[in-house]
Amino acid sequence: MTGTDHLITGATVLTMDPVTGAAPVTRSIRIRGGEITAVEPTLTAEPGEDVIDGRDRLVVPGYVNAHTHSWEALFRARLDNLPLEHWMLLSYPVLGLAPLSPDLIRLRSALVAIESLRNGVTTLVDDVLEIPGQTEEQLAAVFETYRDIGIRANISGHVMDRPFVAHFPFLADALDPAERRALDALTVCDTGDYLAYAQAAAARYRDYADGRLRFMVGPSAPQRCSPELMVGLDELARRHDLEFHIHVLETRTQAVTGEEFYGKTMVEYLHSLGVLGEHVTIAHGIWLTDSDIEVLADTGASVSHNPISNLKLGSGIAPWRKLRDAGVNLGLGTDGMSSSDTARMSEVVKAAALLHKVTGPDYRRWPTAAEVLTAGTLGGARSARLGATVGSIEVGKRADLVIYDMTALAFTPRNAPELHLVYSENGSSIDTVMVDGRVVMTADRLTTIDERAVLDELQARGPELRRWQDHLETLNRSLLPAFDRQYRQVMSRAVPVDRFSGHGDCWLN
């Protein structure tokens, strides 16, 4: 199956389209040139088609990982029991870090793509942060790796242009003079230079890999970026129809930061700058107020919900039901492989389905399997500006499909396929993964890359990488006492918890 013309016959299908959604139906699917050209109860094979027997098979749109960071692949399983701000200091070290080589970035990106495809993820939204800044060669390494392995992706140059100390409300007073001097000496991105870089990247990667890979803009967060940078990137995104991907209200610290810096919430601040719209994806959105949710709904912005990362970092619980009731588009993301330690979206889908069952006693408002599957497919596609391209099985869309073997353990005994997929399946039942009509995994083997060679090289470089990480961690752990002092000050601030949707609803608190 090397071509892009296929016929899948008589399969159980979750189309995720507006008519059948996650309700299983029996369908045959014709794919020509990577595009879905027919979805019917029965279809007859035509000359030149690779025929895939759909008996005992479940066909679904590939998952869209609406928020991840490939940088963190090298920091998997190093850190535990730290809140976000402390954790970032060690997983994105600011002291002593030299730029990574394109060669290491290729290995890192390949690792993320391998684990993603093996778990039924066909699209990544990769918010790529390089420290101290991203070069054209580093960005090209990500694009080239994803091109060769065959995955679909939005790829950013994650950027900050405010000095590090200015990202936090109380850090300046918590640092000793030597620490302050070291942090003030860090290189800060020049706003104009970065806007020119982003414009060039948007043009360079406009139709890269036949349109499968696109550049997106990634201003890190409101408190880490100047208004000039955010407005400039918003204009660029609107001009080129790119995703504008930004972290907003992930932690209580960030909720306090909004009040301290702007006298309003972060969402209100972004809205005042005019940078919210349908092209915007807000990562996390935990500490949202009810009025914030109204603004997001009115502007058409999406939220990427990242439940496993939020749980590991103790960040809080996003207001799933309030966001859905308001009409806000929701995607699902793994976040990076240091804050969640995996790129497997099946775990995120299950976590999203389970987590919100403890946020209120009214079981009629708990997430349904159909809702979380929609968020993991079509919702993520919409947040990535790919809603007309992928996310559902419909005529005219690209064939990004995953085929599950329903004779496998996770589907035995066979009951409701959509419930098996949400609660039982972990990637072990995947038979075939297809991106743009090209089979990129079949019979438990990736067809586009020597997976064993990638893993062997990373394992061989393990001692070198751990020495490098240990050194960086030692340097940056020296700042943790100052972060603790700031953390205690944040936690001492009176925050009316019931003002924040995801927390006022938590009946177990």
UniProtKB/TrEMBL annotation:
Designated name of the protein: Amidohydrolase
Domain Amidohydrolase-related positions: 58-440
Gene Ontology terms for molecular function: hydrolase activity, acting on carbon-nitrogen (but not peptide) bonds
Naturally occurring in which organism (per UniProt): Mycolicibacterium vanbaalenii (strain DSM 7251 / JCM 13017 / BCRC 16820 / KCTC 9966 / NRRL B-24157 / PYR-1)
Superkingdom of the organism of origin: Bacteria
Taxonomic classification: Bacteria, Bacillati, Actinomycetota, Actinomycetes, Mycobacteriales
Pfam families for this protein: Amidohydro_1
InterPro entries: Amidohydro-rel, Metal-dep_hydrolase_composite, Metal_Hydrolase, MTA/SAH_deaminase
